[in-house]
Amino acid sequence: MRVLLIGTGGREHALALSLAADPAVELLVCAPGNPGMAEVAELREVVPTDPAAVAALATEVRADLVVVGPEAPLVAGVADAVRAAGIACFGPSAAAARLEGSKAFAKDVMVAAKVPTARARSCAGRAEVAAALDEFGAPYVVKNDGLAAGKGVVVTDDRAAALAHADACLAPTDGGVVVEEYLAGPEVSLFVLTDGTAAVPMLAAQDFKRIGDGDTGPNTGGMGAYAPLPWAPPTLTDDVLRDVVHPLLGELRARDATFNGLLYCGLALTADGPKVIEFNARFGDPETQVLLPLLTTPLAGLLYAAATGRLAEHPPLTWREGAAVTVVLASAGYPGTPETGAVISGADAPGVVHAGTARGADGALVSAGGRVLCTTGTGEDLAAARAAAYRLAGSVTMPGGQRRSDIALAAVQGTVTVPR
Length: 420
Fold this sequence. Notes:
By secondary structure, the chain is of the alpha+beta class. The chain contains 13 helices and 21 strands.
């Protein structure tokens, strides 16, 4: 199988590692890729959000399967263009990717499908935002309606800060803002592979959005993750498939927006059961970095089955025993304006995934983004995996780098509680 993988980040590097390890893959091309992906694949230049350019590259390399990693190309219609060229694509159409591209659209679909989620108001101006904040009360949850690379959400007890975030979202493009009620309970990420009808869940994982230990500071794209979740209710996956995934997929089919690809369900485990915080239209980052090292099912065949409408015929997923933990190394200044160009050492070890790296003029590996690297450890249990991840993190150096020290700590200590 000849596979073209679109993207440049940590999620794509993790996908590339698993695709390259699949014996069925005879050629792996990553575009544009990153220095880590260059070790396992051929790199090609492309503008990821240019549907015609991606489709042309897929045709040129004679791809049997195109895997679209990031959300922006999906929202731009890259998957549509690839399919129009007669090539199988793992990733939803632009119509279905609106599930991530517009918070207001996602809420509308959830309400129609009777998916359990937070009450919300879509607001077009400051007065509407203020009224919604007063309606739902603190903690205030304010979301940019469009794509924001995981940093468009503010959760705060400070009403002025909530209004300021709404103003920032509204000002540049006269876009929309969604204000929601706060959902109390631990957050869970459940990835579901789907061809639009069949739905195959992966292991539940948990990521850490805030920059600082103890979940302090602003939101980021994710500072670490772990899987599986020893504290999760045993019926979690079945409950989410029944109450969330299948109703949602049915509603999207009814809207002529069949979802083909990876449905990311971001959930809060509340006293009333799982409720949806958000949907994403692609593999999550950094959760992908812990899920794929545990997956023993060959990845290319699995994604191809979803892309070609044959997921129901695919054998059940198989997983390694044990657990995985990943820790993100971020640049100084992140999640604001990151400092780039810092020289990195120790990033060639197994388990290091490149997220925002580049080669300097002298060939040295340097930081080139906010989240720079992930270090992933596996072990017989969560404690062993966590120790391995932080041991590996300690071997990677980057001036000014920042990482959390408490990824998966509460789970290891047994202090995560689910409201009853």
